Amino acid sequence: MSLSRKCVRTMLDLVEIKLSTIQVSDREDAREAAILKTCRDELAALLLRKAALAAAARTAPAPSAHAAH
């Protein structure tokens, strides 16, 4: 399953909002905060990979008509 950059950015924003509002008062809250931090990191990494792939696609040379011969 592939997610668009817009979707990943939106989910990242939602996770960051949740992280900024969470108040850790017990182990369950601490566990939730840790999971959210992991989600934030994974979403950020996914966004970077998507940006790198898009940049590589833009800079890749067009296939040559002679390359098929």
Word description of this protein:
By secondary structure, the chain is an all-alpha fold. α1 (5-21) packs antiparallel against α2. The chain has a domain at 1-44. The chain is built from 2 helices and no strands.
Task: Report the order of strands and helices.
Answer: HH
What is the typical, i.e. mean, pLDDT? Answer: 90
Class from helix and strand fractions: mainly alpha
The 3D shape can be described as rod-shaped
Helical region count?
2
Radius of gyration: 19 Å
Question: How many β strands by DSSP?
Answer: 0
Topology:
Elements: H1 5-21, H2 27-59
Helix pairs in contact: 1-2
Would you kindly provide a brief summary of this structure?
The chain has two helices and no strands. The longest helix has 33 residues, at 27-59.
What distinguishing features does this structure have?
about 70% helix, about 70 residues, rod-shaped, mainly alpha
